[in-house]
Amino acid sequence: MVAHSNVEDNASEQNQARAELPAPASPRRHGEPRQRVARPESPTRFRHFRSERDFRTITMTTSMLENGGFYWGPMTVEEAHTKLKTEPQGTFLIRDSRQKDYFFTLSVKCASGPTSIRIDFQNSRFSLVGSKESFTCLFRLLEHYMDSPKKSLVKPYRKVKVQSLQELCRKRIIETFGKDNIDSIPVNAVLKDFLKSFPFRI
Q1: From the centroid of its chain, how far is CA 152?
Q2: Burial, 24: exposed, middle or buried (Cβ in 10 Å; 0-12, 13-18, 19+)?
Q3: Which regions of 123-181 does DSSP assign to beta strands (E)?
Q4: 3-class SS at 71?
Q5: What is the pTM of this model?
Q6: Which end of the chain offers a freer environment for a tag, N or C, measured as fewer CB atoms within 10 Å?
Q7: How far apart are CA 192 and CA 202, in angstroms?
């Protein structure tokens, strides 16, 4: 169960969009270097990376999200909820978070209607804000909630509703052999690269 205070609502999104000046920096301790505050150039307010490892993780995650077809990039909470409003319960999408210090937001159609939950990224692990469960991979997180008895997530809301035969075959192969066994599948290198570009059951 995710606490209500951790769920994005229209007011918080609108307040972020109306902000014209960066938030004042917190008081720095004596001897600490002064941090430079950069004003975002797009609606997405990505924070600074803490390490090269975090940079690689987010870069790879973004690339795979684009290959998955259900990543919508910069999108307001109103736009996301409008898309999900008439969809079956459990339909979800990933979009850029407009909240400072978060990279992505999960928007999902619940029994009470669409809602959005920020995805935290701390210590190179992903988790839903308010949840104690964390994963080294965002897609493992999504698969976890898809496989849970409650079926919190059922299917992604893709930009292209009808998947190609290639995408359907890739999903079936991953379901059969598993993500970690792609190299052992007797296919050529080109097909292996295709499987590895999105090696998940989503």
Answers
A1: 15
A2: exposed
A3: 125-128, 155-156
A4: strand
A5: 0.67
A6: N
A7: 18
